[in-house]
Specification:
Blueprint (H helix, E strand, L loop, with lengths): L2 H14 L7 E5 L4 H10 L4 E5 L8 H24 L4 E5 L5 H9 L2 E6 L15 H9 L3 E5 L2 H11 L6 E3 L19 E6 L8 H14 L2 E6 L5 H11 L4 E5 L5 H6 L2 E4 L8 H8 L3 E5 L15 E3 L4 H13 L1 H18 L1 H13 L2
Helix pairs in contact: 1-13, 3-4, 7-11
């Protein structure tokens, strides 16, 4: 499950704290069953509705196709909200547009939780739709929730408007008990956890790891799955890169964190990075892309090392420095845990989301 879906589960848990709240989750027909299984295991009392709708794309052609495809879902959801006297619609992700449209049509209160970061390389929505998004974002009864100030600033720049109705709420992390320990291994183990897709820049990680491994006893453990999974495995075989272990999807990352010494996230664009904060709670050293919302809370060389995601050599140098500098790793461990205690992410998230949902 991605970060946005993890946050969605936490929002549902907060909403469930109100015994009078009746919850309905609307998901597309094509939605991955992982979220459904998580809902079942979390014992959240919620009605599940599947509708035929798709998300907005950067391509105008694909966006128009998806909007037309989603019209029936908009009509049905409008009828559903009227019949059930819905008070508030919560939408998770900027590209998930039908909730915002229905809220606008019915003049309902809408909370739009934004995870994506538009930049020069990734806009997320088609340029001709910017005006429509601007009106939806700025609607009086719409509250925009951004996962970082960087995300908020990028959307204000992209839309060309100040979002006075926006709030910044840092996402919660899985509540690990500040895990200790490390599985015994003669090698230093780097880890990556997340989706295996082009934006995550795993090819650069593999190229940097190959250089580091030529002069050091290191391993790389990759947890996750995604559209590039087969291609990345084939790349490792064809290039003869040894020491790489693809461990697949992990519903519980406890054993993964215990098996690594440092986490590497080299994404081209990482709007936040929940897995990085979870790794900090386990006392793991971090190498992070500098294109991340975490820059506003994690300090260079105090909590992590930042890298240019386009530079194999830069990533190689950062990994080598962590490998050789035990004092730096220990500093990150202690300072990272202290930061998490100060941020108190989970309690602040629950309090702010509860206030928004039931204001």
């Amino acid at each position: 499950m991605g970060g946005a879906e993890t946050v969605l589960l936490e929002v549902l848990k907060v909403a469930r704290l109100n015994p009078e709240a009746k919850l309905t989750l609307v998901i597309p027909f094509e939605k991955d069953e992982v979220l459904v299984r998580k809902l079942s295991s979390s014992n959240i009392d919620i009605d599940l509705v599947r509708l035929p709708y798709k998300i907005i794309r950067e391509s105008l052609l694909l966006s128009v196709r998806n909007i037309v495809y989603s019209l029936w879902a908009v009509a049905y959801l409008s009828f559903f909200c009227k019949r059930n006297r819905v008070d508030v619609i919560y939408s998770n992700s900027s590209v998930n547009f039908i909730g915002a449209v229905v809220a606008r049509l019915l003049s309902l209160r809408h909370i739009w939780h934004i995870h994506e970061q538009p930049d020069d390389k990734k806009k997320w929505i088609a340029e001709p739709l910017v005006g429509i998004y601007r009106r939806l974002f700025c609607r009086k009864r719409n509250t925009v929730v951004c996962i970082s100030r960087i995300t908020l600033n990028l959307w204000e720049t992209f839309l060309g408007v100040r979002l006075d109705n926006a709030q910044v709420i840092y996402s919660p992390i899985k509540e690990f008990p500040f895990g200790e320990g490390r599985e015994k291994s003669a090698s230093f183990v780097f880890g990556y956890a997340g989706s295996l897709d082009a934006n995550k820049n795993i090819r650069t990680l593999l190229d940097a790891f190959r250089i580091v491994r030529e002069r050091s006893d290191v391993e790389l453990r990759i947890a996750g799955t995604g559209p590039d999974s087969a291609l990345l495995r084939q790349y490792v075989r064809s290039e003869g890169i040894e020491g790489v272990d693809f461990v697949g999807f992990q519903s519980d990352l406890t054993s993964f964190y215990r098996s690594i010494d440092a986490l590497v996230l080299p994404s081209f664009n990482e709007s936040w990075g929940l897995v990085a904060l979870e790794a900090l709670s386990w006392g793991k050293a971090l190498v992070l892309t500098r294109v991340t919302g975490l820059r506003e809370v994690l300090e260079e060389r105090k909590h992590c090392l930042y890298i240019d995601p386009h530079s194999v050599q830069g990533l190689c140098d950062a990994m080598s420095e962590l490998l050789s500098d035990a004092y730096l790793r220990e500093t990150m461990k202690e300072q990272g845990r202290e930061l998490l205690r100060e941020l108190n992410l989970n309690e602040n998230f629950r309090r702010k989301i509860q206030s928004l949902l039931f204001q």
